[in-house]
Write a structure and sequence with these properties.
Length: 252
């Protein structure tokens, strides 16, 4: 068992989209861990057209992810003030020309929905830059709170078949392994493609979830070795893993 202050020798399973594991790799390498990158999706651009313009002209604008910012910025100027899920999204917005960006803790949809600006949305017009089946909680809750929501889908997720090498790696996982879960859609597609033996292996592997909602979802699948992170950022998820190690939650 490694010291709680590092992750030397650990394998971290990243389920981020194809070509988007870089931040996880850098954070893991800094703490001595290696990353097993398994992408259930790749991201493809969608021409949002008039929907994007409508969202950008709203007085309150929300970007759901760095990918949403990148795909939107390829189609339009992202000026003005924004709300962002997480510091990485905020950084991408500033790089793309945003005047100001506000984030929240925890760095997920729940944190953003707890902001005073979004607690009572009656009479407010809000633009959301995202993907289909992305931050579904925002799309559901904001109209319930009275918002007139303009949604611009600027990219979509294309399902990828897990390569045989990924299946072999999963079957050979050792005890010092963890799955980083920051997307229900990604984990659901990953889980769907596993056979019974692989599901049993993952059920015995520690899973770090970026929100309470994700934690609850993983429990419905029968996963028991779970830990809640403060958000989707790699640093937050690795901090939760270190806490689990310190609490001996990875044993047995």
């Amino acid at each position: 068992m490694p010291r709680a202050s590092d992750l030397n020798g650990w394998t971290l399973i990243s389920l981020r989209p194809r070509h988007r594991h870089g931040a996880v790799r850098r954070a893991a390498a800094a703490q001595g861990a290696r990353v097993l990158a398994i992408s259930p999706f790749e991201l493809l651009a969608l021409d949002a057209g008039a929907a994007l313009q409508a969202a950008l002209h709203c007085p309150i604008r929300i970007a759901s992810s760095p990918a949403a910012v990148a795909f939107a910025a390829a189609q339009a100027d992202l000026h003005g003030d924004w709300l962002a899920i997480g510091t990485a999204t905020a950084k991408a917005l500033r790089h793309s020309g945003a005047a100001s960006v506000q984030t929240a803790e925890p760095q997920n949809a729940d944190g953003l929905l707890a902001l005073p600006e979004l607690s009572d949305c009656r009479g407010k017009t809000i633009g959301l830059i995202t993907a289909p089946d992305g931050r579904g909680e925002l799309e559901r809750v904001l109209p319930e709170r009275g918002a007139q929501l303009h949604i611009a889908h600027v990219y979509r997720r294309q399902v990828l078949a897990l390569p045989e090498g990924a299946h072999r790696s999963l079957r050979g996982l050792g005890p010092d392994s963890a799955v980083l879960v920051s997307s229900r859609a990604a984990f659901a597609e990953f889980w769907r493609q596993l056979d019974a033996a692989e599901r049993d292996k993952i059920s015995q592997t520690l899973c770090i979830a970026s929100s309470v909602r994700l934690l609850d979802y993983l429990q419905t699948l029968g996963l028991q070795k779970l830990r809640l992170a403060a958000g989707t950022q790699p640093a937050s998820m690795l901090a939760a893993l270190r806490e689990a190690i310190a609490a001996n939650e990875c044993e047995g």
